[in-house]
Specification:
Strand content: under 5%
Number of domains: 1
Largest sheet: none
Length: 171
């Protein structure tokens, strides 16, 4: 029940393609930016997973970013349940196992659902993210949304995001 309460609140957060200087009142960010806030860190734009806090798994976050940026607006919202699960960094060996698993299973022209399953399976390798108290996650997301100046967020580099969208391979 507690996990469902958290997820219900996260449904008010809209995942969007690309990095965002700051979310709008809609909470519009990429999955990794939302995960940073949910984990209790100050909001920061994420242009590369290497800039995320150390407790986040790089291979997992890289795959989440790929799914986030290549998904349709409707598909992208299916990533919301993963927002609280990305802070799961483990030993170098486990991170390497995750990287290898993803590389061996991810293929071009896979459906979004198949790629989502790879994310789920990669998350099952090694340490799991700590279960966050629903009230704490709700309060963190609310605080960021309340500080927003605009109704909706705008991608950091709109031109770059558009070019990336045009050149992205269809998976």
């Amino acid at each position: 029940m507690a996990a469902m309460d958290t997820f219900d609140h996260i449904l008010n957060w809209k995942l969007k393609r690309g990095s965002h200087a700051f979310p709008g009142k809609d909470g519009g960010t990429c999955i990794n930016e939302a995960a940073i806030v949910a984990a209790g860190f100050p909001y920061q734009p994420v242009r590369a997973v290497e800039t995320m806090p150390a407790c986040f798994s790089r291979p997992i976050c890289r795959l989440a970013m790929l799914l986030n940026d290549e998904a349709s607006d409707e598909e992208r919202q299916q990533l919301l349940p993963f927002v609280t699960r990305l802070a799961c960094a483990d030993t170098a060996k486990v991170e390497w196992e995750r990287e290898v698993y993803i590389a061996q299973h991810l293929r071009y022209r896979m459906s979004f659902q198949d790629r989502l399953e790879i994310l789920e399976d990669a998350l099952a390798i090694g340490r799991q993210a700590e279960v966050l108290a629903p009230a704490e996650v709700r309060s963190r997301l609310d605080a960021v949304q309340q500080n927003a100046k605009a109704a909706t967020s705008v991608a950091d580099h709109l031109k770059f995001s558009k070019i990336k969208e045009w050149l992205a391979p269809t998976l």
